[in-house]
């Protein structure tokens, strides 16, 4: 796959606006004061494990952040892709990414550094992303271990604890794809499937409402969050989600990353029968959500692929997948349901303790 295409037209100067944003991003006191308004862990717990914050950064900073990503030359972006491999904890995904300290330059490094001040008492790992046509991420729950080198030189193992996705693309619509799908939530009631976004500076809405956890074999689509400029979605790991395939020639820009906790907070995906069944079931929910986000059907560009399976999957493979689901999920139905119900009960207790 080639590098991102060069822009046909010259970038607008926007020098003053970008300079103002960089001055803010490089001011520890200003960034810290702004981030201090968010008690992120409390907001996530109150939202049943997920929260969306609109107007996450000051508007002029968001405008500058978009310019930082748009101005990165194609050579800076790395092809981030993998095929599905249950045995190595890999899920199918493809997009472009870049880290500030390893190719993004000082402007991107300043932008990513600002996110460290949101949860200053935790390690973190952040990158920028650029999605193009057909880029996507298959259903997964973000479980992973990350090695972190301390100032002493010691390397410790950390676990992803909290995920962040910050959107920097304007005027995005559901039929363009590239939507975040929370596969552990029911669809948003009403005609819109864009989560419960707040309005005004620093406002937020949870992804919750009713029972958040269902047996995955129900195959109901999850809650769809269409990218909204200068909004951020945070959720606790593990949580099953996906990113629907992009169906437009416009690139979709974002910042993503994780806040980390020392140690191994959970077991990684094992490839055992129960885990495989859960992966397959959530993939089917993701298919349904991709259609629901576009009024019940994928746009014309993706309709042919959807007819044969997610991401152009051949019909025979789709049939074999369904047979695998039928074989794998039935013996585990009781165990999996009990685990999910226990998790739901734990969340209810957590919410009750916050009241």
TrEMBL record:
<feature type="region of interest" description="Disordered">
    <location>
        <begin position="303"/>
        <end position="329"/>
    </location>
</feature>
<dbReference type="GO" id="GO:0051213">
    <property type="term" value="F:dioxygenase activity"/>
</dbReference>
<dbReference type="Pfam" id="PF13640">
    <property type="entry name" value="2OG-FeII_Oxy_3"/>
</dbReference>
<feature type="compositionally biased region" description="Gly residues">
    <location>
        <begin position="197"/>
        <end position="211"/>
    </location>
</feature>
<keyword id="KW-0408">Iron</keyword>
<dbReference type="InterPro" id="IPR005123">
    <property type="entry name" value="Oxoglu/Fe-dep_dioxygenase_dom"/>
</dbReference>
<keyword id="KW-0223">Dioxygenase</keyword>
<keyword id="KW-0479">Metal-binding</keyword>
<feature type="region of interest" description="Disordered">
    <location>
        <begin position="181"/>
        <end position="219"/>
    </location>
</feature>
<dbReference type="GO" id="GO:0031418">
    <property type="term" value="F:L-ascorbic acid binding"/>
</dbReference>
<dbReference type="GO" id="GO:0005506">
    <property type="term" value="F:iron ion binding"/>
</dbReference>
<protein>
    <submittedName>
        <fullName>Cupin superfamily subfamily</fullName>
    </submittedName>
</protein>
<dbReference type="InterPro" id="IPR044862">
    <property type="entry name" value="Pro_4_hyd_alph_FE2OG_OXY"/>
</dbReference>
<dbReference type="InterPro" id="IPR006620">
    <property type="entry name" value="Pro_4_hyd_alph"/>
</dbReference>
<dbReference type="GO" id="GO:0016705">
    <property type="term" value="F:oxidoreductase activity, acting on paired donors, with incorporation or reduction of molecular oxygen"/>
</dbReference>
<keyword id="KW-0560">Oxidoreductase</keyword>
<dbReference type="InterPro" id="IPR051842">
    <property type="entry name" value="uS12_prolyl_hydroxylase"/>
</dbReference>
<feature type="domain" description="Fe2OG dioxygenase">
    <location>
        <begin position="122"/>
        <end position="261"/>
    </location>
</feature>
